[in-house]
Design brief:
By secondary structure, the chain is mostly helical. It has a single domain (16-461), classed as Growth Hormone, Chain: A, CATH 1.20.1250. The protein has helices spanning 17-46, 49-55, 65-93, 95-105, 107-116, 124-133, 136-151, 157-182, 186-192, 205-208, 211-224, 235-238, 245-275, 286-305, 307-331, 334-370, 375-400, 403-418, 422-443, 453-461; strands spanning 8-9, 227-228. Helix 14 (286-305) runs antiparallel to helix 15 (307-331).
Length: 462
Amino acid sequence: MKKQNSAWISDWRPDDEMFWTTQGKAIARRNLIWSIATEHLGFSIWLVWSIVATKLPQAGFPYTTDQLFQLVALPGLVGALMRFPYTFAVTAFGGRNWTVVSGALLFIPALALAYFVTQPETPFRVMLAVAATAGLGGGNFASSMANISFFYPDRIKGWALGLNAAGGNIGVSTVQLLTPIVLQLGFVNLYLGTPQGAHGLYLQNAGLMWLLPLMIAVAGAFLFMNNLTGARSSFRNQLVILRRKHTWIMSYIYIGTFGSFIGYSAAFPLLLKTEFPQTTLAVAFLGPLLGSLSRPLGGLLADRIGGAKVTLWNFAAMSLAACGVIYFVGQKEFAGFLAMFLILFVAAGVGNGSTYRMIPTIFREERVRAAGQGDGERAAALKAAGLESAGALGLIGAVGACGGYLIPRGFGASIAATGGPNLALQIFLLFYASCLYLTWRHYLRRGSPAAQLPESLAEARG
């Protein structure tokens, strides 16, 4: 294998079975491990305000419920916007290089949070700006997924992308499980010389706890990851994905899957505290955990039976679960509410994996169909499809991440206007119905050009 230097790889042929077995598999696995580590921390910091916001009143911050939901929601919006430049950064600067930079940027929200949560007199607009910096963690997903898509052969790309995404998504459950515990550990602050928290609560730990893991992840990415010269492309060349119809269809659908996962993850702890104040926040991490663990299953099922079929049935399941949540919120029955929400999380996780698996398949088949019959033309079409699908993965992920803002803001606005979350849930239900229809119309309906994608993928595997 030829290398330009120790960081750059110029000869990369994952679909060549001999190359993959003798060299490619080990390198791809090493890059995947450190990609997951950095992305995991990105998700953790992105969603840290989902827990911190629930503790601010106890620490003396005089914010309203709607303002607390805004603090939870804004990192979702910023994270979605950051995914646009992060998507193109991989092809511009190299996957390894950008992983190092994006990981180092996470020190900003961690340190800013650690300082300002010890200042109860902080104006809301300032705290809103501090929360916004956590959105840097949301950008990591786009660059990580775009990068890993280049390393794996098409036949197992769904599994690799699902594993990479799940490793990152679990960061949501990690932050929601560990943060309430770490907030009680005063010895951490005594060691660092930071002030004691109000009422025995050390909110600054929610930022300080990530500093050492970030140092390890950034160093690991620098030492053990690689850039691929074949994955380089100009920003201008990548803009072609904006003209692809399927880019926007899949973006809309992905709001329904990933947008639901990240939006519910952000809002769930505060929603629990608002609707069932007698319950403990300790159960909040279960939803993101189940949603994360189910994501690789969605990619695997998509590899086997087709992403569109899996996605369609997931939207049906999410619609039924949303109806269940509406019913149990009205009945104020916590067990049923929790069960329905966990189903929502699992279905969203499976849908994340299946929709993301559809994207490279769609772009690959469209390019191959438009190419000539010669081997050279087919090879050029496959390379172009790889670059386009990497850009599309990031762009669609960016649009989908808007759910991280829309869902918490929807709950906050619904509670402020009606006293409860049901209005927001009814709107979400209608949205799932529209996603189900679009999936059927464009990717399963008889006569639709894209309806043959699962069969085309099966042929490619064979």
